[in-house]
Amino acid sequence: MTGKFLKVYNILLMGQTGTGKSTFINSISNYFLYETLGEALEENQPSCVISCKFDLTFKGENGKTESVTVNMRGADPTDDDNERSTVAGQSRTLNPRVYSFRCKDIEFNVIDVPGIAGQIGGALKLLIGKLNKERNISLHVDENVFCIDNESFRFQVGWNQSEVFRKFQRTKVERYEESWRESRESVFNLFKQIYSMHAYKVKETIGVARAGTIIQCMIGPLSTVMRLITKGSTDEYKQQVIDSLMGNGTLNKPDAKAEKLKSPQLVCIHKKCLKVLIDEETRRENYDFSDPCHEDCLLKNIVKARPGDQGLTECEMFNIENNCKKCGHSYITHMHVPFKLIQTTSQVESGDILNRDEAEKRYNIFYERLKGEKKIIIDSMIVITSFVRQNAIIEYNTSFEEQLNIEIKKEEANDNLNAISNLKEIIRKYKAKIEIMNISKTSENNTIELEGVTNTLEALFALPVYGKTIRNLFESELPPGEAADTQEFIRCYVKY
After folding, report:
1. What is the pLDDT of residues 129-149, one digit of tens each?
2. What are phi and psi of 338, to 5 degrees?
3. What are the respective helix, strand and coil percentages of the chain, to the nearest 5?
C-alpha cells in the first residue's frame, strides 16, 4: 500500500497457538535495535513490545539442572492481559494487535492474531487445492521460505532477567550469536522480499472487506423482517387488520425497532429464559429474550447476535464448564448483542372506514405486497451468499439460517404455529436455492461483483412496506466507526 510519502506493508502472522508468533515479533523489535547479540547483551535492555513469560532450563553449578522463570512487560503495560498463559506454559494471544516498525519512508505493520487450530497445515492445503480447482489460483511457497528461530531472543531476555543465568551461560554466547545472525538476516531478507513485491489492488480488497461488514450487519435485520412478514401473513393478524380497517380505517403492520445499548450485552436464548411482553395495542402476550446475563459485556472479536460463538467463553459470566453463572445454561444458548430489539406496530396507511368485503380486499393487497417482499429478501440473501462464498468472508451457508432459527424460537414461545410453519418454509426455500447454486457453482453466471451487493442493499432499503425497517435495523448494527482502537496499534522503535 503506497501513500504520498510513506510506503506501508502489512504482514499477517498465522500459526498454531504456542508456535512463537508473539515471541517472533519481540525478536524483530530487537533485530531493528541491535546488529549483533553481543551488542544487545552489552546494552542489556531487551525490547519487549509484547509481554512475555517463559521458563529457561540450563546446566548450573556441578552440572545441576537450573530453571528460571523470566517475565517481561510489553510496550503497553495496560495490555498485558492480551497474553494469557496456557496449561502447557505457552502464551496465548487473545485479540489481534498491530506492531508497526517504521524506518525513514518505509513502514512494516506486523499483525499478531490468536492462534489457529492445530490442523492448520492440512486445512491450508485443502484451501489451496480448492482455490486452484475453482478459481485457478496457485500459491507457490518454496521460493519464499525464510527459516527463523526465537532462541537468541529468549537467551537475551534470560541474560537480562537472571544473574544465575548470566553466570552459567557466558560460554554459550557464541552459539546463540550465530542463531541471532542467521535469524536477523532471514528477517531482513523477508522484509526485502516484501518490499520488492508489486502492490496488490488494495482498493478492491478494502471494498470486499467493507462489503463483508455490511453483509454481516444485514443478516440479523433481514431475519427479523422475515419474522415480521410471517406474522403479518397469519390468519390471526389478518383478522386484526380487518377489524382495524372496519373500526378506524387504519392498516398497521408488525414492526420492530432497535434501542442502542450503552454497552453490548450477553443474553440467553434458551426457552426457559424468555420473558413476557404485553402488546400495548392488542394486549396479547409476546415472548422475547430475558434480561441480560451480563449487562456490560465488553468482549472483542465476537460475532454479534450469533448463538454459541466460541469467543463467548472468555466472558467472566461463564464458569469452568462454560455454563452461565446467572442462568445456568451453556454458552451455546447465549449471544452477544449491541442493542435491544423492541416489538412494535406501525401504520402503513389510513383512510375511510371500510366494510368487511372492502377490508378483506385491502388486506389481500397488503398480503401480496408482503409475499413480494419476502421473495425479494430470499433472492437478496442468495446474492449475498454468492458474494461471501466467492470472497471467503463469513460462513455463508449458515448465518441466515441461524438467525431465522432464533426467530422460530420466539414464535415457538408464542405458540404461533402458522408463523413457525412459514419461517420453516422460508428456510426450506432458501436451502433449496443454495443447493441449486452449489450444483452450478462453476458457472460464470454465479459471479457477483461489489456493485451487485450495493444494488441489492439499495433495493432492500427501497421496499415499500419494510424497507425503512431494514435500513433502521441495519444502521443500528453498523460499527460506530471504521477506525481501529488505538490500543490495538503499537508503534515500535527502529534503530537499524
Report:
1. 776 776 666 666 666 778 888
2. -95, -5
3. 50, 20, 30
